């Protein structure tokens, strides 16, 4: 997510200093992009003894890692039985096991490293707006319970009690999940990665990656040049032509968010337990309480850059649909950014050339998924053992007619909103 609107004060940075420097001489690993995946990989690689240089085109948290909704949700879009049908039993079990632990990785890291990150782990509610969606929740709950997950079905009254919103048919809760201040988390991840020995430079975009024998030569806008045995490109929705075909293998969309003024005590019935919530619509909305008592709500927005507050009006309508009593509350913060979506709604790992690796596609699970990928990716870069990766390495597959993505996304969103409005 690229914040063309300034990052909201809802997400506050920690005060701990981060030392930025550029390595002298060549290194084992260059990481392009200082988000959750890039910094997590840099941290684990540095602690494994590799020399690491991280290069970030903007500021820490300028991408999706700094401006997302802060929901830490384990699992993937696909449930375990779907993964088994797609991948086979062995690969599905490996991926399901990895995905089930992603929230643990985040919250364990915060605790172990004593990170200065506001967080709460009271679960995630997926609220069903139709009977069809409720039956999907029944199956999802059954499958995850079979894998030992701390999940439960919720009836209409229980969802209303947990959310304070009326109109849902029921849903389910995943108690492994939680919420974090994402901007603080990515800043603290940068701090501990540099403390571990990784070098970091900001505001200097990589312009070229050229393979010279067994070495990759990396050059930047600022005139820097460095060689590396391995390169991780962790740019996601901000990817450009640095890696051929990568940016055409997914579609980026804009995710918009709003935050109310702090809610008075009379509205304490809204999300009283601090859970994160997403609904079951095709064009879903997600929401949570911020540490200072605001209601923060997000969802899809237009692909163009916003010009006025009216560009966030669809989120205000969703807010008032859920909570009519908040109609008089001021919207104090509005922001947006990019997210990368793959056609199959599946995260992908690629290695188009030896020593050049990248991941794409978070599908609303980015905080836990990308931070958790850091350790196995670092291990693979250090050892070359692909068996430690939770996902298979696959070729980059450009989307046909990718140049027409804006028209396609606009049509998809319009059609999905029409179906969402018709369903009961």
UniProtKB/TrEMBL annotation:
Superkingdom to which the source organism belongs: Bacteria
Domain FAD dependent oxidoreductase, residue spans: 28-378
Record-linked Pfam families: DAO
Keyword terms, alphabetized: Oxidoreductase
InterPro entries for the chain: FAD-dep_OxRdtase, FAD/NAD-bd_sf
UniProt-listed PANTHER family: FAD DEPENDENT OXIDOREDUCTASE DOMAIN-CONTAINING PROTEIN, SARCOSINE DEHYDROGENASE-RELATED
Protein name: Glycine/D-amino acid oxidase-like deaminating enzyme
Organism: Peteryoungia aggregata LMG 23059
Source organism phylogeny: Bacteria, Pseudomonadati, Pseudomonadota, Alphaproteobacteria, Hyphomicrobiales
């Amino acid at each position: 997510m690229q914040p063309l609107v300034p990052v909201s004060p809802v997400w506050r940075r920690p005060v701990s200093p981060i030392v930025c420097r550029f390595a002298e001489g060549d290194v084992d690993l260059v990481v392009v992009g200082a988000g959750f995946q890039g910094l997590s990989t840099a941290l684990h690689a540095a602690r494994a003894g590799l020399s690491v240089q991280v290069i970030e085109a903007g500021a820490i948290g300028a991408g999706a890692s700094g401006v997302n909704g802060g929901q830490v949700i384990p699992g993937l879009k696909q449930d375990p039985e779907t993964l088994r049908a797609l991948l086979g039993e062995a690969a599905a079990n490996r991926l399901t096991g990895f995905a089930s632990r992603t929230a643990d990785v985040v919250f364990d890291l915060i605790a172990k490293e004593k990170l200065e990150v506001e967080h709460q782990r009271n679960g995630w509610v997926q609220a069903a707006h139709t009977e069809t969606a409720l039956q999907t929740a029944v199956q999802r709950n059954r499958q995850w319970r079979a894998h030992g997950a701390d999940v439960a079905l919720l009836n209409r009254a229980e969802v209303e009690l947990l959310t304070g919103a009326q109109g849902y048919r029921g849903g389910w809760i995943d108690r492994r999940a939680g919420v974090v201040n994402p901007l603080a988390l990515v800043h603290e991840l940068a701090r501990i990665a540099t403390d571990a020995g990784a070098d970091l430079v900001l505001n200097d975009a990589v312009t070229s990656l050229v393979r010279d024998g067994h070495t990759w030569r990396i050059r930047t806008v600022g005139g820097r040049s460095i060689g590396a045995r391995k390169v991780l490109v962790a740019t996601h929705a901000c990817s450009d032509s640095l890696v051929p075909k990568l940016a055409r293998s997914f579609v980026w969309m804009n995710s918009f968010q709003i935050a109310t003024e702090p809610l008075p005590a009379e509205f304490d019935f809204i999300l009283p337990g601090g859970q994160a919530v997403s609904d079951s619509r095709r064009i879903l909305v997600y929401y949570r309480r911020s540490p200072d008592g605001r209601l923060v709500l997000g969802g899809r927005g237009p692909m163009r850059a916003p010009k006025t507050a009216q560009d966030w009006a669809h989120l205000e309508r969703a807010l008032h649909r859920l909570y009519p009593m908040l109609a008089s509350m001021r919207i104090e913060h509005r922001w947006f950014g990019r997210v990368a979506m793959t056609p199959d709604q599946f995260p992908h790992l690629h290695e188009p050339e030896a020593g050049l690796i990248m991941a794409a596609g978070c599908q609303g699970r980015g905080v836990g998924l990308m931070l958790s990928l850091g350790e196995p990716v670092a291990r693979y870069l250090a050892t070359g053992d692909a068996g430690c990766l939770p996902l298979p390495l696959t070729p980059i597959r450009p989307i046909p007619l990718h140049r027409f993505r804006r028209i396609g996304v606009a049509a998809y969103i319009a059609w999905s909103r029409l179906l969402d409005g018709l369903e009961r």
